[in-house]
Amino acid sequence: MPASTALRNGLAKAFNTLSREFQNGAVVKLLKPSTVANEFTEIRTVTDKRFFEYSNFRRNTLLEIADTSSQLADDIQDATHVSIDEVVYTILTGDTLEPSGTNPVWQLFLDLIEREKGYVSQI
Fold first, then answer.
1. Of all residues in the chain, what percent are helix, strand and coil, respectively (each to 5)?
2. Distance between CA atoms of residues 115 and 65, nearest Å
């Protein structure tokens, strides 16, 4: 097994353990804009192998996902937003290349949507 795969699998296990301990019950969804104004379409619910960290009073978030399935890669490319427990964040910067080597996880940098930007902050 390549070292990057072993690292990713270890991080997936750690993310699952940390999520159960600190984010138990949190629902994380990848979203894209709906054809209806101010609404989103759910692309996928990320149920495991993920961990998120808040900063700046929950205004900014780093979401990391330790999974390299091809469907997840497609979903991440399609996503423009993420909801965490129904609070919607814009994806400011996200990985455009699949995880590999010493960067074994997807990383999405998120920013809380403000009501003034045209979307409501909750779905």
1. 25, 40, 35
2. 28
Residue of 82, 97, 69 lying closest to 30 (CA atoms)? 82
CA-closest candidate to residue 80, choices 46, 30, 28, 44? 30
Provide CB contacts within 8 A for 43, sequence distance 6+. 29, 30, 31, 32, 75, 78, 79
1 confidence band (pLDDT: 50, 70, 90): confident
pTM of the model as a whole: 0.83
Q: 17 exposed, middle or buried (CB, 10 Å; 0-12, 13-18, 19+)? A: exposed
Condensed to tens digits (0 to 9), the pLDDT of residues 47-86 reads: 999 999 988 888 899 999 999 888 999 999 999 999 999 9
- Residue 18's identity, in one-letter code, is L
* Integer Cα distance of 21 and 25 in angstroms: 10
Chain segment 80-123, per-residue pLDDT in tens: 999 999 999 999 988 878 888 888 899 999 999 865 445 554 55
